[in-house]
Amino acid sequence: MRYDFDTPLDRRHTHSLKWDHCRDAFGVDDVIPMWVADMDFAAPPAVVEAVERRAAHGAYGYVSVPESFWQSAIDWLDRRHGWKVERPWLHRAPGVVPALSLCVNAFTEPGDGVVVQTPVYYPFFHAIERNDRRLVRNPLVADSGTFRMDLADLERIIDDRTRMLILCSPHNPVGRVWTTDELGALGEVCVRRNLVVLSDEIHMDLALPGHAHQPLAAMSPDLAARTVTCVAPSKTFNLAGLSMSLIVASNPELLARYERQFDASGLEIASLFGTVALEVAYRTGDDWLDQLRDYLAGNLEYLDQFIREHLPALRLVRPEGTYLALIDCRGLGMPQKELDEFFLKEARVYFDSGVWFGKEAAGHVRMNFACPRATLAEALRRIEGAVASRR
Ligand SMILES: Cc1ncc(COP(=O)(O)O)c(C=O)c1O
């Protein structure tokens, strides 16, 4: 079966954060939103049908999560990533963002240092600082149009109150699918310096063709013993509104500490539609996902070529995974605030501002290119026109 990613889906006025925010926050309704990370595609038809079938039943009471739910995740991680996960290693979370906070509270004490590799998904900062932990930055290094880790700096900034590193793998927003060599070298530092690693692998299924995701915890027994991994079908299948993600930890002590936080926060009851959707997506979504990745790769090619041919002041930081692309706009010569306003008010496209992720991404914007190609083309034409009318 071929799936249709080309036909635009009208998401305006559907309580979509992505699509309704510009109207609600800025009073404008004609902006193409390419910011928050959800896709302008319907979920796989089998998932939509399962949710519709369950919705038609009409009784939406408390959920009992079936064993088949967990088995679908175990099979998915094995089939897609060669990662052999066992049932006792698994737990739930209502989302990866809440899981980050639960883990910060489970594995560190107030005042402890938690390392992040900036520029990075900004809720990492909130999970640390809003829980009174110390944000320790290990900036990525810009190198030949991409980013790499700086492990010498990491060694230097770890002190005796640094307890945890939150890894973003694949990395949002720089789009790196870390290689096994890079992960091995990072892991070696974490083992030697005794850090717990919270590995946010929510984008794991979205490595672009030519790149392969490596689950950190699958690399060695030493790493498995100190790693808690977040995975979810939410980015992969566009299910973020259904509130369902998973925790994987083969170390029973770490999992027990997570579970204490989970129970203390009163999270035992799962989302009904999230439970239904995760299982069907993981059980049946391979073919849809393979076609989605090809479509996203096509969008990325289009974006790359358009920038080269029509927007010479911009540079694409070419992602290896995710459907998010950092675009270096320093060639336009605008400070970030002016740059963000230029895109919103003159180009009529809305991006995540680079500085939201850290000062390392100043002068950049993050574009979400998970949309029909016609929408991407229209956004790029708008940018080209706005840049031309500034000259
Ligand atoms: C790295 C990363 N973690 C977590 C999330 C959000 O997770 P959730 O919607 O499950 O809270 C995102 C969404 O963009 C993300 O990029």
Description of the molecule:
The protein is α/β, with parallel strands linked by helices and 391 residues long. It contains 14 helices and 15 strands. The strands form four sheets. It has a seven-stranded mixed beta sheet. A four-stranded antiparallel beta sheet has the order 11-12-15-14, with helices on one face. The longest helix has 25 residues, at 286-310. The radius of gyration is 21 Å and the shape is globular. The model has no long low-confidence stretch (mean pLDDT 97). It binds pyridoxal-5'-phosphate (PLP). The site of pyridoxal-5'-phosphate has 13 residues, from helix 4. Pyridoxal-5'-phosphate (PLP) is lined by residues 37, 95-97, 121, 168, 172, 200, 202, 232, 234, 240, 245.
Strand content: 5-15%
Encode the helix/strand succession as letters: HEHHEHEHEEEHEHEHEHEHHHEEHEEEH
Mean pLDDT: 97
Task: Report the C-alpha radius of gyration, rounded.
Answer: 21 Å
Strand order of the largest sheet: 2-10-9-8-7-3-4
Characterize the main sheet.
Answer: 7 strands, mixed
Number of strands: 15
Q: Fraction of residues in helices? A: 40-55%
Number of helices: 14
Give the low-pLDDT segments.
none
Give the CA-based shape: globular
Q: Cofactors and ligands present?
A: pyridoxal-5'-phosphate
The structural class is alpha/beta
